[in-house]
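Shipment paperwork, digital attachment
Item: protein structure file
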Amino acid sequence: MTAVERAGARTRRVVVVALVLVGGVAACTDTPEPVPEVTVGGEPGGTPELEFVTPLAVTETTVEVIAEGTGPRLVDGGPVLVNFYAESAADGSLINDTFSSEPRAYELNEESLGVEIYRALHGQRVGSRLLHIVVPSEGQTSGTVSVLDVLPTRAEGEALDPREGLPTVTLASDGTPTVSVPVEVTPPTDLVVQPLIRGTGRQVSPGQVITVQYVGVRWSDGTVFESSWDAGELPVSFPIGVESVLEGWDAGLIEQAVGSQVLLVVPPSMAYGGTPNELAEETLVFVVDILSAVGGPEAAS
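Attachment content:
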């Protein structure tokens, strides 16, 4: 479960927003019109359920914290991973939904997110669920009613002791892993799967789209050949268990829990062996933080 899911069993909180109903203002009386309500329901971490009377004319942009996360506050210029669900304030029609596909990764700045979403997310804690109501932009007649879930960008859970003889991993304050490989030792010829952090989310299953942070290192000399933690890089999403990534990733990440960090030692036969890739003869070491898993057989049933 993510920090959002740990915020409580089933979250259903009524949030009062300073809106007025279009055409709903009666003739002047001493009795004020009731303030409309937006109700946010649904399972924590799952697709939100919005209830409000339409049409709504949004008079100001507002942000309400439905559930506050327990993770670190978002840092300007750092990565932010977000699920969002948006409906038209005019008629409640769906505008956008990432809960049914995969979360989106951005840098926390106005250029990447746009001014309004940046302002909504700035200073929020990882794990928070936000209600974001936005006035119509220029040329539009309707505002939007949105829910934003701020997801972790690093593994979180119980730290585990790895077996002896494996590469060692140290983490920077922001979660960036540094891998030290015993290059003087002959690498294993079979796939090695060593969880380093045990997450508490759902298990990864074939056919899902997973979102991860990762670093890849050559066993031969310990050098990094690619990393989503590099400056300007972001978490990545891809299908798992459908021969779309390395065989070692398919075999090593399926059945791991979301929130986990997993060390993989992948022999050439389960990596790039037999291809013209420059890494074809290399045993590769990966440290993978599993941030999200969406879809798969369970979602289709």
